[in-house]
Every structure is written in C-alpha cells, then in structure tokens.
Amino acid sequence: MIIIGAGGHAHAVIALWRALGEEPLGLLADDGPAEVMGLRRLGTPARAGEWRARGVERACIAIGDNAARARLGAELSRLGFALPAAVHPSAVVMDDARISDGCVVMPRAVLGAAATLGPFCILNTAAVLDHEGRAGEAAHIAIGAVLAGGVQVGARAFIGAGAAVLPKLVVGDDAVVGAGAVVLRDVPAGTRVAGVPARAISA
Half-sphere exposure of residue 56, counting CA atoms within 13 Å on the CB side? Predict the structure, then answer.
C-alpha cells in the first residue's frame, strides 16, 4: 500500500489504515514534508508507475482536492493499482450500503441503508449520509455534516463541516456548501452556497 499525498488529509488517511491494522509503505506527493507520521515521501505521483512495476499493488489517495482526487484515481487505475476503500472500525455502515473503490470513511461516520458512495469519496469524521443517499465520484462530505434521507450529491461536490441538507435534495456536480449551512432547496451544479438558510454566494 502506498499513500498519494502528504498534506493534512494524509494524516487522517494514515491513521485510518493503521486503525485497520495496515502499515503503508510510504507517500508519493508533489510537495509537503519529507515525512508524515513516520512515513517517508518516496517521490511524486508521476513515479507511481515505477512503484507498480516494483510490485506495489495497492494505493490510497489522501488528497482533499476533489478534482485532483478523481484525476489521480483514473491514472492509478490505468497503471493497474487496486484502490481499496477504507472504513474506520467505529463507522456505522448499513448492510445494504455501497462503498466504491478509493473511498475513505472516517471515524464515527454513518452511511445509511441503501446509501451509496461513488469512487474516491470522503465521508469524513462523524458525517452522515442517510438512507438512500448518494455521493458521486470524488465528492467530500466534511466533518459533522448531516445529509438526510435521499439526498443526492454530485461528482466532486463539497459539503462543508457541520452543514445540514434536507431530505431528497440534490447538490449538483462541483457545487460547494459552506460550513454550517442549512440547505433547504436544490443546489445547482457549480454553485456555492452558505448561510442559514443557504443562499448562493460569489466565489
């Protein structure tokens, strides 16, 4: 297992794999410290193919930027890496929920009945995606966010820490919901909203 990324999210991902009893080999990152939580930076993601050729079979992307995570996921898949999901032991995942490759489900997160995480999603600490909800590819549901039943989150969308989204609403592709927002209506693709109730804001 090799970790892609050396920023803040990498700390959480390394801790997650260790909670699962696995010690990653090291990190690939374009920048950042030479070592994170005792793991050395072994080069850049551009060298991932070399590590695959050396026999490293699995990778986990520990990068918070949604678009970058999706792009790297496609490249690592092309190189032949397996990209297993990681689910913290304290997370609550219903039996019929679905978690795709490359996802990370952090401590005390909840994935409800018939809910789905698309590839490379982050369901962060204590976040909730309730029954029949869906998060698209590389979406990020941040710490403590609560998405009620049936909420649909688009690809690469970001739901900020502590936000709440009412049942059956749609948050479109690449949309951003600010921290602590309360979403009462659909959020169109590419739109940024914040506040209580949530309203569109400029970038």
Answer: 22
pLDDT tens across 182-191, in order?
Answer: 999 999 999 9
Round to whole Å and give the CA distance between 181 and 157.
Answer: 14
Residue 141 is encoded by which pair of tokens?
């549901």
Residue type, 73: G
Domains annotated on the chain, with CATH: 2-78 (3.40.50.20), 85-191 (2.160.10.10)
- 59, 74 Cβ separation under 8 angstroms: no
List Cβ<8 Å contacts ≥24 apart for 41-49. 41/6, 42/2, 45/4, 45/72, 45/75, 48/2, 48/4, 48/75, 48/76, 48/79, 48/81, 49/79
Tell me which amino acid residue 33 is.
P
Rg of the chain's alpha carbons, rounded to an integer? 17
Model confidence, pTM: 0.95
**pLDDT tens, position by position, 92-149:** 999 999 999 999 999 999 999 999 999 999 999 999 999 999 999 999 999 999 999 9
- Residues assigned a catalytic role: 131
